[in-house]
Amino acid sequence: MNAAVRAPHPLVLGCGLMLVAFNLRPALTTVGPLLAAIRGETGLGAAGASVLTTLPVLFLGLACVLAPAIGRRLGPDRGILLAAAIVAAGLALRALGGLGPLFAGACIAALGIGLAGVLIPGLVKREFPGRAGLMTGLYTMTLCLGAAAGAGLTVPLQGLFGGDWSLALAAWAAPALLAALAWAPLARPATPVPAAAPGRAIWRESLAWQVTGFMGLQSSLAYILFGWVPLVLHDRGLSTVDAGFVAALMSVGQAPAALLLPTLAAKLKDQRGAALGIVGLTVACYLAVVHGPVALLVPATLALGFGIGGCFGLGLTIIVLRARDTQGAAALSAMAQGVGYTSASLGPLGFGLAHEAFGGWAASSLLFCALAAGAALCALGAGRARQIGFA
């Protein structure tokens, strides 16, 4: 194998990584804008919609549990290639139409998203050790732009396909396949790694559990917003197109925070203040979007995106900063995202069930605020200037 394949230029590697990142959210953000249409056509109830928004997050957690073994066997480079291909396959499956392919495609795509999410922090730690904050920010910003594109363009795609929501959802397989093809030449084979003892030791460290708690709870907030904000906006009187557009603004708002927060946080010795501030902003803006004046929807939604994007970028940055080396970053990433996403799946489910049980969105909002309070509490430990030791 020649040197160019074994060691791609950092700029080329970074661009390939950004292409993959762009496709790690449309599978999750494209369903929400069409949820009203899907429910109207298929008769899917609120409980079924809750399951539809919950299952992908659960499969994200499952993928994170499997990711370390896949990473050891294939290496992070080829593991990310496999992840991108799985995302494309899951998205394409939705073209078959009906609830079965919709649910199955969402779960399959989520497996690929979770696998990539675990492997990328270790690759960033390995390839960009001096620019971990910047690269995490760029990766997260690009991921958020993909989320915005999915939320904002899916309803117009539905119109382009004659009102067929299944084809509109499946169209996102095309850029995912392109990302897989672009990453393929950069995917180096696995190299020998030390024994996996650190992965076992990490489960005994309180700091690792605090990082996991913050990652899981902020993820729960994010997936509540991805799955339910379009329907909340529709209930507030917006058309399906307008609700999708405003939800896309939320994703657009994530991009600058996803770039700025990791870059700034990596320069701070202690990230607790940044975490508490961004969680507080998220809660305030959520309440403005769901319960505030309709006239403030656009700026409040943009600011809500800034808050949730900052939470996610900070969560990934904390994983990298709390680890001492590439192996430690991979182990902590697997734990924080595996356990975190699995527990986060309960957030969208509980949010929807609270809406169905009590009507309106007040009870659901109480749940959202409680989850945010838990994230802030975990941040007090996760944001400390410490690193996890792997004895």
Protein architecture, described:
This protein is mostly helical and 391 residues long. The protein has one domain: Up-down Bundle (Growth Hormone, Chain: A), CATH 1.20.1250.20. The chain is built from 17 helices and no strands. It is globular and about 50 Å long. The model is unreliable at 1-5 and 193-198 (pLDDT under 50).
In short:
This is Transporter YycB. With about 400 residues, this protein is mostly helical.
Name the features.
single chain, 391 residues, mainly alpha, 17 helices, 81% helix, 0% strand, globular, membrane, Transporter YycB, MFS, MFS_trans_sf
Strand content: under 5%
Helix-strand string: HHHHHHHHHHHHHHHHH
As a whole number of angstroms, the C-alpha radius of gyration is 20 Å
Helix content: over 70%
Describe the protein's topology:
Elements: H1 3-6, H2 10-22, H3 26-29, H4 31-42, H5 46-93, H6 99-127, H7 132-160, H8 165-170, H9 173-183, H10 197-201, H11 206-235, H12 240-267, H13 272-291, H14 297-322, H15 326-344, H16 346-358, H17 362-382
